[in-house]
Amino acid sequence: MKRKICFVTGSRAEYGLLRRLIIASSHHSSVSLQVIATGSHLSRLHGLTYKEIISDGIKISSKVNLHLKGRSSQDIIHSMSIGLKKFSTAFQELNPDIIVVLGDRYEIFSAATAAMILNIPIAHIHGGETTEGAYDEAIRHSVTKMSHLHFVATKHYKKRVVQMGESPATVFMVGGLGVDAIRNLTLLNQSNLEDSLNFKFRKKNLLICYHPETLISTKQNIKNLLNLLDALKQFKDAGLIFTLPNADTGNSALTKLILAFVSKTKHAKAYTSLGQLRFLSALKCVDAIVGNSSSGLLEAPTFNIGTINIGDRQKGRVAASSVISCEPTKEKIIKSLIKAYSLGFQRSLKDTINPYGRGGASLKILKKLMEFPLERITNKTFYNIK
């Protein structure tokens, strides 16, 4: 009998990580694949990115619309409550043997909560990580405690999941899915990427990905972004590619600031969604990624480029030597950018080792999803470290 494996995906970035695993599952003769699209996938503001899933030849089994009308805390709480009810209905209709979730988004929390109450086994990917500048931190650890199989990116993260009381027999160190995507995708060269983006690369180029820090006020987020934009004004010879903020609290204010900046800056362009292919191709072509995206820590080191990691959103994550972390002030950001372009730092990049591995995570995860016995797996015992 085929094992019914249900993937829940809520954003363009997270689907990019899950993509190879989902496609591999769809080709496995012993898997009955189910995919639930939710969150910003179904938002026009974020480009209706569920269409990318369909274009990959993947059938969407259910759409859970969270009605993302605003970005305030109350709006997100409302969306989470809708998700809890709708995920419950979807799971009862699909009756999966196990659900697979990745990361720490609020829609993933709703999905995991519904599955837990329905006594459906949960597999969690990229647990054990820390991001002290966002409530994603609490969500990620909460999902870990609701889950039954854990696929982590580093030994450090495996230790942390076990420290949280999860049995070592259910925690598997597989590496990062972002590295897997890079190794198994034919990326665009600079010329083709320029055509696709309608953007002309300069001698120097930066990819800017800045999202709200959800544990600080919108006012402070605006101030931090303005500091970044002011710093970038000092680098008039660099082409600037912006990806717009994700669907977190306060993102609309940041989006407006970025669009206003781009409208007055001839060497800058902003994109709602680059998609996985263009995003990773951009990483290959730029000098550095700037902002507070997890991609700067998880994927960028594989390309041997620098990362300017601003603020606390990614604080606590394992980082390669190519990552320069700085406070969100104009002076610190400028200093970090100067360092990123310095001869010594540029020379050091060739020796960068990505702590998230060399690829292969997707097939490792699929093998465990297929083979691990699910009988009574939801009856967990807290594992005490001796």
Please sum up the structure shown.
The protein is of the alpha/beta class and 386 residues long. Helix content is 42%, strand content 16%.
Describe the fold and architecture.
The chain has helices spanning 12-26, 50-55, 73-94, 106-117, 136-146, 155-163, 177-183, 190-197, 218-232, 251-263, 275-285, 295-298, 330-340, 343-348, 361-371, and strands spanning 3-9, 31-38, 62-64, 98-102, 122-125, 149-152, 171-173, 204-209, 238-243, 268-271, 288-291, 306-310, 323-326. It has 386 residues and is an alpha/beta fold. The protein has 2 domains: 3-175 and 360-371, 3-Layer(aba) Sandwich (Rossmann fold), CATH 3.40.50.2000; 190-351, Glycogen Phosphorylase B (Rossmann fold, 3-Layer(aba) Sandwich), CATH 3.40.50. The strands form 2 sheets. A 7-stranded parallel β-sheet has the order 3-2-1-4-5-6-7, with helices on both faces. A 6-stranded parallel β-sheet has the order 10-9-8-11-12-13, with helices on both faces. β5, α5 and β6 (149-152) form a beta-alpha-beta unit. The longest helix is centred in the first third of the chain and has 22 residues, at 73-94. The radius of gyration is 20 Å and the shape is globular. The model has no long low-confidence stretch (mean pLDDT 94).
